[in-house]
Amino acid sequence: MLNPDRYFSPFPEIREIARSLYGQVATLPIVSPHGHVDPRLFSDPAATFGSPADLFITPDHYVTRLLYSQGVPLERLGVPRLDGGAVEGDPRKVWRIFCANFHLFLGTPSGIWLVHELSEVFGRDEKPSAANADRLYDAISEKLASPDFSPRKLFERFNVEVLATTDAATATLEHHRAIRNSGWGGRIIPTFRPDAVVHLDTPHWRVHIDDLSLVSGIDIVDFLSYLRALEQRREYFKSMGATATDHGALTPATAELTPSEARAIFQRGLKRGSMPGDASRFAAHMLMEMARMSVEDGLVMQLHPGSYRNHNETISSIFGPDQGGDIPVQTEYTRNLLPLLNKYGNDRRLTLIVFTLDEASYSRELATLAGHYPALKLGPPWWFHDSLNGIARYFDQVMETAGLYNTAGFNDDARAFCSIPARHDIWRRASANWAAGMVVRHIVDRADAETMMRELAVGLARRAYKLEKGS
Predict the structure, then answer these.
(1) Measured distance CA(202)–CA(223) in Å, rounded
(2) In what side-by-side order are the strands of the sheet with 160-164?
(3) C-alpha dihedral, 292 to 464 to 308 to 226, nearest 10°
(4) Looking at the structure, do residues 355 and 375 belong to the same domain, yes or no?
(5) What angle do CA 386, 387, 389 make, to 5 degrees?
(6) Structurally, how many domains does the chain consist of?
(7) Treating both helix axes as pointing N-terminal to C-terminal, what angle do 91-100 and 133-144 enclose, rounded to 10 degrees?
(8) Where do the H-state alpha helices sit in 324-419?
(9) H-helix or E-strand spanning residue 160
(10) Is residue 97 part of a domain?
(11) What is the pLDDT of residues 274-294, one digit of tens each?
(12) Which of 73, 100, 200, 369 has the fewest CB atoms within 10 Å, i.e. is most exposed?
């Protein structure tokens, strides 16, 4: 059984208050304003999660990357190859490898999430091992075949108030439309992610532009028609319930090109004749354009910089992108965001939520920026820092300078749907521990701590992402 006091301080005075604070928010609904769960899971009432390996292992790069780091080939984990080459097709064998190597996850966020899922979702209170792998597989398979463990039923059981997916600018959102038309009451909304049509160095960028023309109904022949197509797609996403956009970038550089410069760079891209430096300059300019569009249409703007994508070229060439080979880089915000914040940072119509993989920038730059500019809020610990210790470091480095209400609460950024309750549980427990520590040190009183807990659990995210009822 999971210990009810897990993750709380070992000091009794703090632990007692943390337990009480957590208890007041433990059953609040889950607000998940940013993540990568596939909406197809919910568009068909008969959809299932498949086998235990399909649910826990093969699609989860948190899991596969750690196994790969210890010499387990991705082929043995059932990860498809781009060339269609042979991979393990028996999910039971994949599961056995996972269980035999479960010790690799001890003390990691993935290990905490997996134990929570096995215990709280599937009722299994034994550690995976080579000895019990088949027994666990059969027990979980039986539950996954039950109607009570369908994606929609678990959505309701997890008490998810809203779940945002992340969707390409060229997505038709057909699965979101099917969810709407089904009459099911679950709130699942898209998020506009235009990276593939913004970054000129994206593989097959020109093909993505043709797709954008097709779905928008606008013939993209120049920079102005390109902007109109993006604006049309944003409006369509809004009509399907979207409240936010999302932008990935190696750096958070922003810069405003002259109209003639933007037109010239875009035309070179259309003609497949881009020059060195075009991609970075265009990306910096397009962040300015996206901020301008957010001021006009009200969509919240998220910025996720600082990941060197697909660092392991061998893996990405065989298995494709996003296979666990993404590595953080040092990231600078004060100068890089200056053009955007000077133009839009004082405009309360813009909400810009900034994330980082470079924790050194929390207290040095981001907390100070968020504590000044009305448009800027800090996103929660992201990716490699979405952990018990990462959350504690975030609170220590951010809150004193930025203030609680200049942060955006929590989002789980999950691909693995069943890990969502585990991630929110850790956040709420870590929040309770932090708030309890301040009560014990007489920084805030008990009533203030209780208010802060409700904000950290649901309130901040609802407001930052415009997810409150009637908004």
Answers:
(1) 18
(2) 30-32, 160-164, 188-189
(3) -30
(4) yes
(5) 125
(6) 2
(7) 130
(8) 338-344, 361, 367-370, 388-402
(9) strand 160-164
(10) yes
(11) 999 999 999 999 999 999 999
(12) 73
Residue listed under structure tokens 């093909």: 207
Return the DSSP state at 366.
I
* Residues 381, 411: Cα–Cα separation, whole Å: 9
Question: Do residues 379 and 304 share a domain?
Answer: yes
Look over the chain and give the mean of its residue pLDDT values, rounded to a whole number.
97
Q: Is residue 455 part of a domain?
A: yes
Q: What are phi and psi of 372, to 5 degrees?
A: -125, -55
210 CB-near residues (< 8 Å, 6+ apart) = 220
Distance between first and last Cα of the chain: 40
With contact defined as beta carbons under 8 Å apart, do 328 and 275 qualify? no
Q: 469 lies in a domain?
A: no
Rounded to 5 degrees, what angle do the CA atoms 462, 389, 373 make? 45
Residue found under tokens 């900034």 = 354
The CA-based angle 43-45-47, given to 5 degrees, is: 80
pLDDT, tens digit, 9 for 90 and up, residues 343-386 = 999 999 999 999 999 999 999 999 999 999 999 999 999 999 99
Tell me the whole-structure pTM to 2 decimals.
Answer: 0.97
Full residue range of the structural domain in which residue 241 is found:
12-47+149-464
**What residues form DSSP beta bridges with 377?**
353
* Pairwise CA distance, residues 287 & 341, whole Å: 11
Strand ranges in 330-393 using DSSP code E only, listed in sequence order: 352-354, 376-378
Contact 156, 418 (CB under 8 A): no
Partner residues linked to 244 by β-bridges: 300
The region, left, alpha or beta by phi > 0 then psi within -120 to 50, assigned to residue 416 is: beta
Residues in the chain: 471
What is the DSSP code string of 105-155? GTTSHHHHHHHHIIIIIT---S---TTTHHHHHHHHHHHHTSGGGSHHHHH
354 burial (CB, 10 Å; 0-12 / 13-18 / 19+) is buried
Q: Between the CA of residue 469 and those of 451, 463, 465, what are the distances in Å?
A: 20, 10, 12
- Together in a domain, 100 and 142: yes
> Would 5 be classed as within a structural domain?
no
Taken in order 357, 361, 365, 367, the sign of the CA dihedral is positive
β-strand pairing of 167-168 with 192-193: parallel
pLDDT value, residue 470: 55
Are 55 and 44 in contact, with CB atoms under 8 Å apart? no
Q: Residues with Cβ < 8 Å from 239, sequence gap 6 or more?
A: none
